[in-house]
Amino acid sequence: MNAITRAGLLSLVLVSGCKPTVILEAPEPEPTPTDADSDPLVEYEAIRESVRHYAAALSAHDPKAASEWVVSDTFGYYEDLRVAALRATREQLEAWDLMSVMLILQIRTQITREQLESLDGLGLFERAVTAGLVGEQIEDIVLDDVWLDDTGEHAQIRLDGEPVVWLRKEQREGDGEHGRWRVDIPEMIRLLGPAIEAMAHDAVSADGKVRTALTFVELSTEAFVDIAVLDGPLDATD
């Protein structure tokens, strides 16, 4: 498997159901086990249970359930994606991280301009879950290796010693006193992005970030993607 294919698979874990086992190292220090007062075994199981709930929601294409198991910042991130999908030029997309550009191009191929204009960030996330644009095979991840930071507020699921899912404890109405563990998609994007760009460095240097992202999207869909998505959403008649 060449570097472009590996990078494409890595970056699409979140968006197209590729196997999470291809995730390699992310540029971050290794967290240490929590010193929180709660029983670590109980906390580890709560983390696993959150991932199970999220995976089940994705597998069922249940947007309402999925939105309960991601941090609220997810919807702000998806709002940024929505606005970029509607308005960003090729030149502007070159300034984004590669993984986000891939997401933007996928959104443009799946959702029309009229539909995007009627959504907000939460609506786009829910639409992506319904359409299967959020990686469903998170359910295949082995949940044996759980890590917590020393504050007890951030956690990871690890595979072969490398992080594959990031979580954060967040409190919303109805969660109870201590909140709930939720998958932290913006953190996953932030930490995986540099690793993906490093893997795709030669391709980006040769073709640019947007063209490279288009190649990755075509790899993930195994289909030709209209180059018009580089300039905006495809119209319903395209």
Task: Give an overview of the whole structure.
With 238 residues, this protein is α+β, with helices and mostly antiparallel strands. The protein has one domain. The protein contains eleven helices and four strands; from the N terminus they run H-H-H-H-H-H-H-H-E-E-E-E-H-H-H. It has helices at residues 3-11, 40-59, 63-68, 73-87, 90-93, 98-110, 113-117, 121-130, 185-199, 201-207, 209-221, and strands spanning 145-148, 154-159, 162-170, 180-183. Strands 1-2-3-4 form a four-stranded antiparallel beta sheet, with helices on both faces. Strand 2 and strand 3 form a beta hairpin. Helix 6 crosses helix 11. It is globular, with a radius of gyration of 18 Å. The two termini are 33 Å apart. Residues 1-36 have low confidence and may be disordered.
Question: Can you lay out the helices and strands and say which pair or pack?
Answer:
Elements: H1 3-11, H2 40-59, H3 63-68, H4 73-87, H5 90-93, H6 98-110, H7 113-117, H8 121-130, E1 145-148, E2 154-159, E3 162-170, E4 180-183, H9 185-199, H10 201-207, H11 209-221
Antiparallel strand pairs: 1-2, 2-3, 3-4
Summarize the structure.
The protein has helices at 3-11, 40-59, 63-68, 73-87, 90-93, 98-110, 113-117, 121-130, 185-199, 201-207, 209-221, and strands at 145-148, 154-159, 162-170, 180-183.
